[in-house]
Specification:
Blueprint (H helix, E strand, L loop, with lengths): L2 E5 L2 E4 L4 E8 L6 E8 L6 E6 L6 E3 L7 E6 L4 E6 L8 E9 L16 E2 L3 E6 L1
């Protein structure tokens, strides 16, 4: 049973940093593309970033490019989201997601429907 568990959320002042972690219980971690999404109250879930199966390609939403970095540790079955220079508009529940795309080692999907497995989310609140 595949399972994703996020951690690392919290309250931070604008300009601060947080690092989110997502521990994945999956059969073969390297088979999965990993993504981060966020959802603010009464808003749709939107793409933040994703990293390819081989870890070579990263993709980011324009709103976080240059501030957020996604990485993966295949030895620990964990994906991270380092968030720097946080802004109040980054406030949301952050979700990690995983999906398998056989043979597509450099693929970094950006739409929620392409991901099969989801974590329960972790709240990030940025105060002004």
């Amino acid at each position: 049973q595949e399972q994703l568990v996020e951690s690392g959320g919290g309250l931070v002042q604008a300009g601060g940093s947080l690092r989110l972690s997502c521990a994945a219980s999956v059969r073969t971690f390297i088979d999965y593309v990993l993504g981060w999404f966020r959802q603010a109250p009464e808003m749709e879930r939107v793409f933040v970033g994703s990293i390819s199966r081989n870890g070579v390609v990263e993709s980011y939403a324009d709103s976080v490019k240059g501030r957020f970095t996604i990485s993966r540790d295949n030895a620990k079955n964990t994906v991270y989201l380092q968030m720097n220079s946080l802004k109040p508009e980054d406030t949301a529940v952050y979700y990690c997601a995983a999906g398998t795309f056989s043979g597509r080692n450099f693929y970094t999907p950006r739409t929620p429907t392409e991901y099969r497995y989801w974590g329960q989310g972790t709240q990030v609140t940025v105060s002004s």
